[in-house]
Every structure is written in C-alpha cells, then in structure tokens.
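user:
I keep going back and forth on a fold encoding question. Separate attempts, laid side by side, tell us more than any discussion would. Would you put together a sequence-and-structure record for a protein of your own picking? Write it directly below this note and I will take it from there.

assistant:
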Amino acid sequence: MIELEGLTKDFGSLRAVNGISLQIPRGEFFAVLGPNAAGKTTTIKMMVGLIRPTAGRARIAGFDIQENPLEARSRLSYVPDFPFLYEKLTPAEFLRFTGRLFRMPDAQIREGCDELVPRFNLEEWLHQPIESLSHGTRQRIAIASALLHRPEVFIIDEPMVGLDPHHARVVKDILRERATQGMTVFLSTHQVSVAEEMADRIGVFHQGQVIACGSADELRARSQTSGTLEAAFLALTRGSQRQPEAA
C-alpha cells in the first residue's frame, strides 16, 4: 500500500532524507520513531505530495504521488502535527465539506458522521465555530474528518498532540480497528510508548535514513539491549553514522 524507493530530499547542501526505501502492506500499522531533524516529517511531506523529492519515488496504493497525484490522494488521508481547519466553519460544516471534497454521497457522509462524531465526543461542539474550540477539540475534528471517507492509507504526524488521555485512547482504538479492517497506518511520533503499544513494525529514522526496522522485540535484539524500547531506541540512535536498512 505504501512503497518508498530511494526517497531523497536535498535542501541546498543539506540532505534531509537520504535514500529511504520502505514497503508497508495493506492493513499494517507502521510507526516511525526518530530524534528531531531525523527526516520524518520531510519524508511524510514527500509521501503525500506536498514537496517533490530530489530523487526516488513514493507510491500510495500503487499510484505514484508525483505522476498520478489525484488517484493517490483520493486513497489517502494526512493529518499533520498542526492541522489546518477552516475556522469560520462549524465541525458539522467542516465534516460535510471534507466529505464532498472526496465526492462522497450525502447519505455516506451522514453515515460516517453518525459513527465518528460520538466516538470523538464532538456532539457538544458540532455547531460552534471551530475558531472558538480548544486545540484538543480541533485535533479530534481533524482526525475524524480524515477518517470520514475511509481511506486506504492513513498518514498522521504526532497524533496525540493536545489530546487528553481519554481522547488519546479513542484515537488509538479507532486507528487499530481501521488497520484490522485493512487500512494502512503510517504514524510518526516521538512517544516511544505509543509506537510500542500500537505498531506492527517500527522504523527508526536517524540522519535521514532508516537505520532499523522491525517489531519492538526485533529492535531490542538489534540494539543488543534487553530492557525497554526506549533503551533500544537510544542505543540505535547514539552513533553518528549508521548503514541504512532495507525494510
């Protein structure tokens, strides 16, 4: 469902992403961990077509994001760490607007809202301007609207930003359910506990490369640590240069 081949991005003399190759199949929950400036967000922006790679390619559900952008984007949803919402709209209006962008029939939009609005506890805020709502509520609206058209691929950057423990649990449960139903999830996070709890596989990014990829147990084995995943992550990223790992 997600194929990255030699994905590379240069900003002048800085190589932010250096030849990343990944294959993430249908229904896999894949999490990305990495220190600041590891290339995670730049990789995501290339995956969703926001920036053009210097080299390499990204395919979503078989479609090259640069060569067939409409076909690829119709099959994915992307929630950045600070999502943009039209603040003069209400959540109800924004959900309907999002559904129509994806050419959903009105009946399907209503069905999706009937499922997602209660799950995200948005009933109380449904008809208030988004500009009047808290950051956490906006985050829930963004995630709900991204799930509305039941994308084949769901890409999310730091999903728990601004969420209280209850709604963080809601997001985890829904993403896990959708992955079980066949949606491919690509999640970038700094929270090691989230990656360990949720992911089928975890990719460790460092200096623009994937330096390790596997289950939490496999990463512990690769790092030669027997303790927490956090200890494994710190051991893997401690060195200044590593050979990239094909995944």
Q: What stands out?
A: The chain is about 35% helix and 25% strand. The longest strand covers residues 14-24. The chain has two domains: 1-75+153-247, 83-150. The longest helix spans residues 165-180.
